[in-house]
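ligand=magnesium ion
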Amino acid sequence: MIKAILFDLDGTLYKSETIRKKFAEAAYTTIAKLKNISLEKAQKLIEERREELQKKSGSAVPYTLTLLSFGVPIEEWHRENIAFFDPRDYLTEDQKLRETLIHIKKQYRLAILTNNNTIQAERILEALNLKGIFDRVFTYNTFNLLKPDPVFFKKAAEELDVETNECLVVGDRYAIDLTPAKELGMQIHEVTGPEDIHTMRSGLDS
Ligand SMILES: [Mg+2]
């Protein structure tokens, strides 16, 4: 029986090409500063690495994990992206998603499980008007862990006081959000964006 639902944040509860671009630009800036190279060179370096990693893993690799492959300390990356852009400037309330989540919340404990940092995650939830909906918001900063590390999923379940097989994990990146969850015996639901969460709601209701 499902007792808790853990949602990925970026690409799952909102989809924004502008934010995706801001993330990319923040990543280029981070590498340009670190290696003391031009932004253009940094962009080339990062996008080439992303392609390599994608070939190896078979799916698109987020900027956070790409930067880690260059040895960028995660705290430094988070500091850069927090300073680089404020998601509240680009995102607006999603009334329909809010209603769906409030409906689901009547039956399940809800949490966020994101590789983003706490500051950006809170800004995004504020912009989407979803603050206060989630029982817990687990970010990289909560345990200093990143998906796909299964320990991140396990610790989140522990904190929610549920067994792993009582969790449903919802995310847009199969290898990062869902494979580790599946291996822990969690239920999984793949989405391509917030629209798919409404469909999921009907599944839960039936
Ligand atoms: Mg995502």
